[in-house]
Design a protein that fits this description.
mainly alpha; 71% helix; Adaptin_N domain-containing protein; INTS1_R4
Length: 178
């Protein structure tokens, strides 16, 4: 991907091309009224921030609201954007806790189970909120029992246990070195 860098000067304000593109995308996402537009724009966001996840920050409120969008493709792209962002910035996962929990506990089975399908990845990327996510996910899996929901929950619990073991092993090694 080639990024052209130039400055656009107007009214004593300097914008880089990336800032201008981000502002334009943000504006278009905020005003998108139909699902197919949101899909195209979220896909553009996912693609343009893949190598620079920090650029997702101004879009977090839109990503959060998309977790409960009626259109599955919109939700999928929102989850992918969020995961890209928190994989690069794990401490930012707390900003998605409320919205992701709301999706897990949503009254729509489709929205809830779709959120549950991303749980193992969220657990892996969001260690600091994993207990809260597992709690909401357990309620969701019990509310909408199916082989898939139980498998998703099981994979998330395994992911959580795996990093707990890794942390314990790391702590054991550091204690042994003292």
């Amino acid at each position: 991907m080639i990024i052209y860098s130039f400055q656009l000067k107007k009214e004593n304000v300097t914008f880089s091309l990336l800032e201008f593109m981000s502002a334009s995308l943000l504006s278009r996402l905020e005003t998108a009224e139909i699902s197919c537009d949101r899909v195209v724009l979220l896909d553009e966001l996912r693609a343009t921030t893949a190598e620079s996840p920090d650029r997702i920050a101004p879009f977090t409120h839109l990503i959060q609201s998309a977790f409960t969008d009626l259109a599955r493709p919109v939700r999928s792209l929102a989850y992918q954007c969020a995961l890209n962002y928190i994989s690069s910035n794990p401490y930012m996962s707390v900003h998605f806790l409320s919205a992701y929990s709301a999706a897990l506990l949503h009254k729509s089975a489709d929205i809830s189970l779709h959120a549950l399908s991303f749980l193992p990845e969220f657990i892996t990327a969001s260690r600091c909120i994993s207990e809260n996510l597992l709690s909401a996910a357990t309620m969701a899996a019990n509310r909408w029992p199916s082989p898939e929901s139980m498998a998703d929950l099981s994979r998330a619990v395994t992911a959580c246990a795996d990093f707990r073991c890794a942390d314990a092993e790391e702590n054991g090694i550091s204690q042994a070195m003292k």
